[in-house]
Each structure stands twice: as C-alpha cells, then as structure tokens.
C-alpha cells in the first residue's frame, strides 16, 4: 500500500525535525537564560510550532499502528509520545506565569526533554 510506505518514509525524518526544532528552542531559551531574560512570545510561538509537529507525529504513529506497522513496545512508545505532547504546553504555562529568567530555564529543560524523547521514540519504534 502506497500510503503506508509514505508514512514509513516520513515518520523518522519528522522525528528528527521535531528533535531539531526542540534543540533550537532549547538553545534559544538557554541564550535568554544566560542573558538573565524571561521567555518572550516568539519563543512560545516557536514551541507551538514544535507542538504542532508533535501532534502530526502522534497522528501518523496512530495511523501506522492501526495498519499493523506499530512500534516494538507499544506501552513505552505511547508513554514517551504522550509525555512529549505534554511537556511543551506545561513549560509554556509555567514560563507565562513565571516572568523571570527561570522561565527561560524551564523552556530550556523542556526543549532538551522533548529532543531526548524523540531519540527514544525512534529507538523504541525500531
């Protein structure tokens, strides 16, 4: 089936794109933290872009799983997937409430966590 092959070919590069976006966001947040500055709206919007990619990734993984091409360990995979979906919104809420440099630190940790979870998702899928 052609659509399954397309999903298979796109999922891994999408995971790497999410990880790269999360690392860029983490780097930006780290730079702002080093300057003793809080998170700005553009960073939260960038986090929103990464979150949209995470949602697309989760939908693609669900479709692949429904067609029989699922991960080796479903419980671990979906645990990582759901955690990565929750991390950035939680960090954004925290950063919005905390208007000090620590908001940048929170976004830095969240970006690194999402990037690490993407690595684990790729490993678990294989």
Explain what the structure shows.
With about 130 residues, the chain is an all-alpha fold. It is built from 4 helices and no strands. The chain has one domain (about 1-125). The radius of gyration is 15 Å and the shape is elongated.
Q: Give the end-to-end Cα distance, rounded to a whole number of Å.
A: 20 Å
Biggest sheet descriptor: none
For the CA atoms, what is the radius of gyration?
Answer: 15 Å
Number of helices: 4
Written as H for each helix and E for each strand, in order along the chain, the element string is: HHHH
Oligomeric status of the shown chains? single chain
Tell me the strand percentage band.
under 5%
Structural category is: mainly alpha
| Contiguous uncertain segments of 5+ residues | none
| Helix share, percent | over 70%
Query: What's the overall average pLDDT, rounded?
Result: 88
Query: How many domains make up the 3D coordinates?
Result: 1
Rough outline: elongated
The count of strands amounts to 0
């Amino acid at each position: 089936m052609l659509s399954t092959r397309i999903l298979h070919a796109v999922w891994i590069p999408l995971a790497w794109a999410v990880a790269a976006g999360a690392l860029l966001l983490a780097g930006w947040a780290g730079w702002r933290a080093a300057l003793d500055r809080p998170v700005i709206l553009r960073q939260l919007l960038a986090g929103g872009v990464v979150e949209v990619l995470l949602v697309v990734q989760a939908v693609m993984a669900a479709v692949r799983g429904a067609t029989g091409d699922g991960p080796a360990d479903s419980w671990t995979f979906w645990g990582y997937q759901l955690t990565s979906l929750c991390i950035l919104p939680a960090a954004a809420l925290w950063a919005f409430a905390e208007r000090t440099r620590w908001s940048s630190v929170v976004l830095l940790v969240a970006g690194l966590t999402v990037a690490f979870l993407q690595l684990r998702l790729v490993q678990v899928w294989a």
